Amino acid sequence: MPVTAADLVAQARARIREIAPQALHAQPQPSVLIDVREPAEFQTGHLAGAVNIPRGVLEFQVEAHPAVANVSDPALAHKTQAIVLYCRTGGRAALAALSLQQMGFTQACSLAGGIDGWIAAGLPVTQR
Q: Which residues form a coiled coil (predicted)?
């Protein structure tokens, strides 16, 4: 039986951890932030310190990205780093978090509500 995109997102959300915008903002030690939106979306505003790896190429590029690969100390196990993925409303990020979990990333989670939820909570975005 065929499933819809909404079904896939619901299935992913049932298998991943989501973090509320306020909880992420309150964390003293920031996670690696990955914005899985397209580059044009990223340029309209994003979370400070986020790296842009679009959803369509995430699985192919995530392990090579310096923010994730921890090139400053190769001995560190990069697959255990805390990674928070986000998109506009959370659907793409939920799918991305599930995909990274399947690739062995043990601390991948999704920002609940995406950047829209972040903005609705009154939290800052940047265009730099």
A: none
